[in-house]
Design brief:
Rossmann fold, 2 domains, 32% helix, 29% strand
Length: 256
């Protein structure tokens, strides 16, 4: 009987396209995810490690037949990759360290186009204040004309506006794919009290049925340090000072 555990790590930022060359992304590098992967690849009990990340994010240094690199770009790409892997394989745990962007570029439009569309909808219509606001909002949500985002937008385009839409909350879907997966999520805040960080992370854990959350404060990351608090259903599981501490703690959680 094969008792080895298959694990997924998501790492790095997602990149959401505005046009053929411009993207919305964030400052994540995937460094922590890569370190966690290198640590797990030392484990004899590991079956296969699926490492899902964008092209330019850090990758594990370890070369191993156990490692499969899966390249993604957008939040939708990530969601699809997770679903495909989880539904077609026996996955024990997911370390969801990817910094999924909150927004994607829904469409681009010029100020002139938007002004023309709004004017055509409200001109000489005698609308009251509420009707006026609702009409303008409808135009913004569903304009009749937009700038084509499948090609590069001109570098000389004045008054260009980008409408942002919400990306899917990837972490909330993981247990839907398989409720038995051991799910480790991450939460990053900046310059908050330890109490607030733990409170927010605890709410995230409960909301998404995660088993553990690695709670980070951006203001305490740097100069070789990466302070983090790992929480579970009982509260604080362990406190870490470096990325290596975090990776060793996650290995213990997954293979204890």
């Amino acid at each position: 009987m094969n008792n080895k555990k298959n694990i997924i790590i998501t790492s790095g930022p997602t990149n959401e396209r505005i046009d053929a060359v411009m993207k919305i992304t964030n400052m994540s590098t995937g460094a922590l995810g890569a370190i966690v992967a290198d640590e797990l690849l030392k484990e004899d009990g590991l079956g296969k490690l699926y490492y899902i990340s964008p092209k330019l994010a850090y990758k594990p240094k370890t070369k191993s037949e156990k490692l499969e690199l899966v390249q993604i770009e957008s939040a939708l790409d990530l969601l699809k990759a997770l679903k495909d892997i989880i539904t077609n394989n026996d996955i024990y745990g997911v370390v969801h360290s990817a910094a999924v962007g909150d927004y994607y570029g829904e469409y681009a439009i010029t100020g002139e186009q938007l002004a023309s569309l709004i004017a055509s909808k409200i001109y000489d219509k005698g609308l009251n204040r509420e009707e006026l606001e609702n009409t303008i909002l409808d135009v913004i949500k569903n304009p009749d004309m937009i700038t084509d985002n499948t090609h590069k937008i001109s570098s000389y385009q004045d008054n260009l506006m980008v409408k942002l839409g919400l990306t899917p909350k990837v972490i909330s879907s993981i247990k839907e794919f398989d409720p038995n997966i051991k799910l480790i999520g991450f939460k990053l805040l900046d310059g908050v009290s330890k109490e607030e960080l733990i409170n927010v992370a605890s709410k995230l854990r409960k909301k998404n049925n995660a088993d553990y959350i690695v709670a980070n404060d951006l203001s305490r990351i740097g100069h070789g340090k990466h302070y983090a608090t790992i929480i579970n259903d009982d509260g604080i599981y362990v406190e870490c000072e470096t990325k290596d501490d975090i990776s060793k703690s996650l290995r213990k959680i997954l293979f204890k």
